[in-house]
Amino acid sequence: MNPAKDNALSTMAKQLVSTRQQKEKLISSKYQLGAMNTKASVMTSQLGAAQAMKSVTGAMGKMNDAVDAKEMTKMMMEFQKQTEIMNVKEELMDDALTDAFDNEDIEEEAEQITNQVLAELGVELDGQMAGLYAPQSKVQKNSRPAAVQEDEEDMLPELRDRLNAL
Asked: pTM of the predicted model, to two decimals?
């Protein structure tokens, strides 16, 4: 081989190795620049958060200076007291209205009507259950005297007429 060719080949090999090393250094530098960019973004965000906290702290300080805590507590207690007074007045008004419009006559009449309706329903239920099968038990079911039963049977038509009159 020719020594001039060997020198040229050796020089080219050295340049190739040098180029590869420079490429690796460029890639490493690129990653380092990206990491620095990320750190700069984080620092900018932290600075913005710190400034916002400073503004909020200032606003809260001004608010605390403007609002008297004792006065606010006093107002809240007065509000609670007035609310309780209003509730008591409302209950008194409800009771007064109930007393004014509720009449004992109405209650008695309503009770009479209720009793009449229940009596009629009881009569109708007795009539419907007469044909049903009921098991016999040792206890005597009809322990009322015969005279009471006859009086009740005599009252049935009268109760029916009274209910129909309603």
From this structure: 0.34
Radius of gyration of the chain (CA): 51
**Alpha-carbon separation of residue 85 from 29, 78, 80, 124 (angstroms):** 78, 11, 9, 53
Quick one: tokens of 144? 């009322």
Q: In this structure, what DSSP letter does residue 132 have?
A: S
For residues 130 and 94, the answer to whether their CB atoms sit within 8 Å is no
In a domain? residue 91: no
| pLDDT level of residue 32 (50, 70, 90 thresholds) | very high
**Residue numbers of the domain that contains 114:** 103-127+150-166
Structure tokens at 91: 């209950």
Q: Using one digit for the tens of pLDDT, what is the confidence trace for 49-61? A: 999 999 999 999 8
**Residues sharing a CB contact under 8 Å with residue 162, sequence separation 6 or more, in sequence order:** 116
Tokens found for residue 28: 């490493």
The reply to whether 93 falls in a domain is no
Tell me whether residue 155 is in a domain.
yes
